[in-house]
Amino acid sequence: MKKLLLLLLLVLFSCSKEDNSALIESYTTQINSLQTQLAESQSEIRRLLNEVNAIPGLESIISSLQSELTAQVDNNSDLQDTIDTLNSQIDANNDLIASLQEQIEANKPFDVNRMDIVKYPLYNKDTLSGKKVDTKQINFNFFTNKGMDLREIDFESNLDFLASESFIVYWDKRYAHTNYAIDILRWAEFAAIKAIEMGMPKPKKFDTHRMNIFITRDDEFGDDIFPGTQCQCSHTTWGDGNDSGTLGRKYLTFPWYRNFIESETKLRNYPYMNVLHEVFHSFQRGNSSWIAESTAEYFEGTFLAEIRPGTRRFIPDFLMSTHFKLWSGYDNNGNGTNDADDILHIYGKQLLWYYLDWNGHIDKNFIGRLNSDTSGISKNEYIIQNISNFRDLYFDFTMKSTVVDFPKWNDHINYLLNNVNPSGRFEGYKRHELVLKSNNNQITKLYDEYNYNGEFISPSVNIEPWGFISYKIQSESDNNYKIEIETEHTKYRLGVIVKRNNEYQYYEINSGDIINFINNDMVYVVIVDIPDSNYTNVDNADPFKIKFSLQE
After folding, report:
1. pLDDT tens by residue, 528-552
2. Which fold has domain 434-551?
3. Cβ atoms of residues 368 and 200 within 8 Å
4. Which of 44, 227, 238, 395 has a CA positioned 20 to 30 A from the CA of residue 412?
């Protein structure tokens, strides 16, 4: 057949050599180009087939297609038909290439470096392969305390689910939460990999069992098999005496409150919920509340702070309540209630970890070593002992926090401070203990003519161990100030920051020192309590009074 085709072409060329030479040359050029494209597409298909390791069925498909198209070419003697056939074959090959590439991408293992691609086939109902699923054997006290034991639920008739390599998400079958579950699963896998990379200890049975996650709702958003919308939280499972193997296992809950629109099938390049924060909690070990929350925020922010809205929202809460002790927790007032001033600022202490990180005082694995430490010392002691010159660094951090001198995020932090929503915030939140102004003969509040010059001032709050407060003075003349504090406590450290010509000058001073200021200087005075002890059983320091005196 090929010989006949060549003879026909030769006759055609001979009969119209003079009249059709240009047309023939054009056809020949097109055919040569198309044949080159065809060869390239076939080569690409062979490469893809090798990459995907001969996905079942594809070899026979491509072989059949190539045979069919070869026959079409052999049976056409017209040059234009040949071109059309070649184009058709190339189109078919390109379609196959696209299909192969899609299947290859979908079947690649999870890759934290390609979070812009959602590999939907990785999230499925296959619980027979990979890590085990043992939900029915676990007594989840978080729900049991509310009158429900998950072991009594008929999962098949009541719950829907999706699983990934290390996690499984359950939700009430009456609702569509597939894409919400995928959003949680993909970022849970990301967080787990990153936590392990930084040396965090793995949760109990993490290598053998999938961690359980529950999407919960509230009656306001429809009846739900789970009792009430639970927090974004990491929980610990406690045994009931018969299931000691589950003691200490972790599980997570994420609420749904119209925070995710299921019809939006294109997922964002960041999680809708604080998935990284909560997964990191499940990896933490023996952390006090301030370390647990601040490092979980730091971990999440390391990857998402400049991408996910609201990730840095708690930093102002810390900067407006800096008098609390370093190891402040969920109930600093001791009233048995987790008030806003108890909770929010410990999340904002993430700023300390960023400061240490940005300035090279800790590496990316420090938090992992902190959680993996088995020396028997407390986490607070570990931090102080294993960060060189921690006390001096902390003093520097307090001064940088007072003026917000963190070049990487200055603009954003100041924006947050200027737009703090007072709702749910402690009414005593403030950036500075007093904001004053001075001229040639007096020191007053901005909106009060009472002269504080030479008069001791008592702060409105007590500084707790490792806490600090500040005073801000707008200088409206060239002056010398004498700064004194009156106290029985010997471990207060005094810092002075002068903002002059949009640059900061930092000083540590002693009580009674005289400092020179010029007109238009912005002056900040910081008082910090830095105990000698590395332990947390430290009493609050004796109170102090501070005096600013203009000098002749």
Report:
1. 999 998 888 888 888 999 999 988 7
2. Jelly Rolls (2.60.120)
3. yes
4. 395
